[in-house]
Amino acid sequence: MQTQAPAPEGLIDVPGGRVFYRIVGRDAPGTPLLVVHGGPGLPHDYLEPLQALANARPVVFYDQLGCGRSDRPGDRSLFTLPRFVEELDAVRQALGLSRLALLGQSFGALLGVEYLLRRGQEGVERLVLSGPCLSAARFAADQRAHLAAMPQAVQDAVAAAEATGDFDTPAYQAAVGAFYAKHVCRLDPWPACLTRAIEGMGLPCYLHMWGPSEFTLTGTLAGYDATPELGTITVPTLLTCGRFDEATPQTTADFAARIPGARLAVIEDASHSHHLEQPARYLKAVEAFLA
């Protein structure tokens, strides 16, 4: 961390506005862990179990622009991957994180990888990619395969909404709920921290960059694919996914095979939110890797 420790929480100026950050275990001795949330537009609250890692190191959370406790500008032109890379770098610089470990979940894994590819890997000692989306087309194809295994009524509701462009129908929303209950978070009810994150979600960002649901990809990230460049990552890397994850074990294993020396941990009885569904198993794997 920087010589004069930053406040436990506050706001940081980034391109386009200010973002909220929070540090847990500020005085812990280990290399700080910077956590990059997913969505895009889903604030960091749902990653609450990662606070347990602060027994050995500072754990830094932040809400990306457009969601949570960060500014919510009306200008959607700010919702671009290059600007989010600049934002991540601004957070790192403001908090004096010259040495750090980086953990990205879902879209956060995509953003973390993009940061390393565009800004370099210096000072990044470890990389954790949880439920990684590193190829939008492959992620979308995996969701289509999941969808094909859902009840016919769910498939019909999705097909009807995509044919008309009306994604607000009760049938489509029910289909989304059924899909998410199987592949996003299998807990019932969903944990309070996940519910809180959804309440603070920046929906304009999600709709602009991804689309109306995880399996209907219409946003600006549709053409994203980092797989040709994964071989250039030299940071020790751990990839994690759940057995029923949107980021399927097969796809995640392929990403791991492309990153030199990368490790893979598949969490059983869990899906995209495996850090919530099986926190002890997840934290044990991450803790061992960071140590």
Automatic annotation (TrEMBL):
It comes from the Bacteria. GO terms for biological process: proteolysis. This is Proline-specific peptidase. Keywords: Hydrolase. InterPro entries: AB_hydrolase_1, AB_hydrolase_fold, AB_hydrolase_sf, Peptidase_S33, Pro_imino_pep. One of its GO terms (molecular function) is peptidase activity. The keyword Hydrolase applies. Belongs to the peptidase S33 family. Residues 32-278 form the AB hydrolase-1 domain. GO terms for cellular component: membrane. The active site is at S106, D245, H272.
